[in-house]
TrEMBL record:
Molecular function in Gene Ontology: transferase activity
Keywords in alphabetical order: Transferase
Domain (DAHP synthase ferredoxin-like) ranges: 1-67
Residues annotated as domain DAHP synthetase I/KDSA: 82-121
Pfam families per record: DAHP_snth_FXD (PF18152), DAHP_synth_1 (PF00793)
Protein name (Swiss-Prot/TrEMBL): 3-deoxy-7-phosphoheptulonate synthase
Annotated signal sequence range: none
Length: 122
């Protein structure tokens, strides 16, 4: 389940709605986007009537979600994730070509690959 808060919702509003959910024994994942906050509900949401949440003045709308990978789902996390790796931005609009072995058999193999990559200019 995804609870989309109104753009006017305050941190207290998000906290209040989150508490309603956690009091029912479910977990929440709050994402504060640039426009509005989204509360992802993790667990058996059959315990929750979406209409009971939607009556809150700070809630824009509630959606049931049946898709897997809720924590990585764009509906839960609409903004891009950008990670800075020693000055190199990975994610968002930034393209990063990352390569490596498909699997690692031993520490020796990792060291050998790292030495070869360094020698090649990585």
């Amino acid at each position: 389940m995804i609870i989309v808060m109104k753009t006017t919702a305050t941190a207290k509003d998000v906290e209040k709605v989150s508490k309603i959910i956690t009091d029912k024994g479910l977990r929440v994942s709050v994402v504060n986007g640039t426009e509005q906050s989204v509360i992802g509900v993790i667990g058996d949401t059959t315990k929750i009537d979406p209409r009971a949440i939607e009556v809150d003045i700070a809630v824009d709308h509630v959606m049931r979600v049946s898709e897997p990978y809720k924590l990585a789902n764009r509906a839960f996390h609409p903004d891009d994730t950008v990670v800075d790796v020693e000055g190199v931005k990975v994610g968002g609009e930034n393209l990063a070509l990352i390569a490596g072995p498909c699997s690692v058999e031993s520490e020796e193999q990792v060291i050998e690959i790292a030495k070869a990559a360094k020698k090649a200019g990585a």
